[in-house]
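Input:
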Amino acid sequence: MEELFSKVLHVTVKYRDSEERKANIRVTIEQSLSPVHKKDLLVRLTDNVDPYFLFNLTISEEDFQSLKAQQGLLIDFATFPQKFIELLNLCYSEQDVDSPRFLLHLSCQSPVPEGSANLTIIETNAFKHLNHLSLRLAHGSDKEVKEYLAVCLSSLKAEKQALDMKLKKTEDDLSRQLSYAQQ
Amino acid sequence: MEELFSKVLHVTVKYRDSEERKANIRVTIEQSLSPVHKKDLLVRLTDNVDPYFLFNLTISEEDFQSLKAQQGLLIDFATFPQKFIELLNLCYSEQDVDSPRFLLHLSCQSPVPEGSANLTIIETNAFKHLNHLSLRLAHGSDKEVKEYLAVCLSSLKAEKQALDMKLKKTEDDLSRQLSYAQQ
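Output:
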């Protein structure tokens, strides 16, 4: 898997029967390097404050052809990742603006993060909302969430260990300087 | 749930068709406080280096009666936790000794940590191995492992945050002392 994109984006999340809420969702796009699933795209949404929040979508070249027909896309599979990332970057660059032109919406069929959800990139102008792209993602199974959490845990452990070492080093350095200065 | 015991113990682990290995396994015993499952005991084994390693056993008063009959125990359910913990503490106190008298064995039916496994507390004397207690634990489901990992992740995040603050405070304190000493 090669990571093409990974950023935390403001997303308006709407679950069935609940109010919309703003969430900071990490959107990750990876591309398969395996010879069998060549160039398959994996889109993943995760939420740092909710360990069980995990939505996935794999887009093969075949899936892309139906997506293209369905949503009237004018590009081919090879250029799709780049255009998709451009749209996400437009959302990213405008997300701290008062009324951003590009917005991300996630609407979930169920009242909690499970089942499937639609991620939509919307351009808002004075006249109407324009849907640039809409993707249907599936919530991760228990097994997928388990594997995702194991990866999170392992990287957090490494970060904590690095911090532990930094603390030790800082204490050593500064007390050495201090005892030198006090002489 | 009230935690009665939680220690990292040396356990000899044997999977089917593989060599025995020594592992540091956290053994946790909790007791239910809910009025429905009153006094149910939950025994849990986890391994800090393997996020997917999770074995559970719930012992209700009824389960205990068959365990008692089967293994010829002479105690009742109310004193079982205390005796069980005494045995674990005997293992714990001897685990850094060259030839400990009390040992913990975990034998798993499958070649990897899954399915069920038997945890046995064994006393070794010159004459024979004596099984003090043998419990059959089930490997956690994907959902249980997922929930366990979410708890690990959340406590690790809190530890990391505390460390971050400690680092900041150490830097501040020592540079203040340093600038004072240098004046």
